[in-house]
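Notes from the 1:1 (GR / supervisor)

We went over the backlog. Supervisor wanted to see one worked example end to end before approving the batch request, so GR pasted a single chain during the call. The sequence is below; no edits were made to it. Supervisor asked that the structure be written out right there so they could see what the output format looks like.
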Amino acid sequence: MLKWLFRLVVLVVVVWFAATVQLGRHSLLGHLFAIAHTRAAKDLADGTKEAGGQLARRVRQELRADGGVERGRPDERLDDRDRAGLQKLVKERGR
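Structure output shown during the call:
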């Protein structure tokens, strides 16, 4: 409880500092808002949004419609060596 209260007090002090203490012409929040509204920040946001969209499209294309689940009986995907090993294991466990 004491840790939580201490963290809350620290958070309140940091927010108060960021909102009220002047650092040059603006407070810390004022500087952050000014930076966020620059053309470079908008270009960064647009580029990130575009790259994220391209990634999402690529992921959707790579995923198969069946979600990567192969159809058929599981033993149909085994080769003869795997099948023989599986049969041996079943016989050992069945005893």
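Supervisor's comment: Residues 1-41 form one domain.
Batch request approved.
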